[in-house]
Amino acid sequence: MEALVIVDMQEVLIPMVWEGTELADRIADLADRARAQGVRVIALQQVGGPHFERDAPGTRLAERLRLRQTDTVIQKTATDGFYRSGLAEALHDINTIVLAGVGTDYCVDATVRAAVSRGFDVILVEDGHSTAADPEAGLTAEQIIARHNRILSNAVHPGGTVTVTPAEQIFRGSPRGQH
C-alpha cells in the first residue's frame, strides 16, 4: 500500500523556494490523482521555532494544495518528519511512501532517509520538491534538487529503497497501491 506524504508546503515557504507556486500546483494535482486511486494523503506541517510559530498565518499549509478534510495533517517539530510526530503510526499499514514538498536539502532529505531507515520504500517525486539557492556553496536551487535526486536514488540502505520518478508518471491509471 502507498501513501502520499507532502512535506512542509506552508504559506511562508512557497515564495521562498524555487518555483514554489508551480510546485504547489504540481503537488495538488498529484494529491488529486492519489485520492482518485484511494491512496492516503498526509501533509506534514512544521511548527515551532522563529519561522514557524504555531498560529502564525504563514505556518498554515498552502491553500494551493487543495487539501481535503479526509487528508491527514501531522504537525512536526524537526527536519525529520518522523521525529516525535506520529507519522510512523499514521503509516502503520503502508509499505511505500510517495514523497514531495520542501525543502529538498532539509526536511525532504531528512524524511526520505528516516523513511528508508524504517523499512519504507520511497518514491521521491523528481519534480515534486524544491529549495532555495545556496549562494555560499555556489549552487542554484536547480542544482541542489538534481544533486539530491541523484544522491538519494543511489543511497544504499538495508531498510527500504528510494526511486526518483517524475510527477506525471505517478498515480496515472494504475491500480491502487501501484504507481
Rg is: 15 Å
Counting H and I runs of at least 4 residues, what is the number of helices?
Answer: 4
Average pLDDT confidence is 93
Task: Give the CATH H-level superfamily.
Answer: Isochorismatase-like
| Strand arrangement, major sheet | 3-2-1-4-5-6
The N- to C-terminal Cα distance equals 10 Å
Query: What's the domain count?
Result: 1
Question: Structural class, from helix and strand content?
Answer: alpha/beta
Query: What's the count of strands?
Result: 6
- Provide the CATH topology: Rossmann fold
Question: Mind telling me the CATH class?
Answer: Alpha Beta
Roughly how much helix do the residues carry, as a percent range?
25-40%
Shape: globular
What composes the largest sheet? 6 strands, parallel
Q: Under the CATH scheme, which architecture would be assigned?
A: 3-Layer(aba) Sandwich
Which series of helices and strands comes N to C? Answer: EHEEHEHEHE
% residues in beta strands: 15-25%
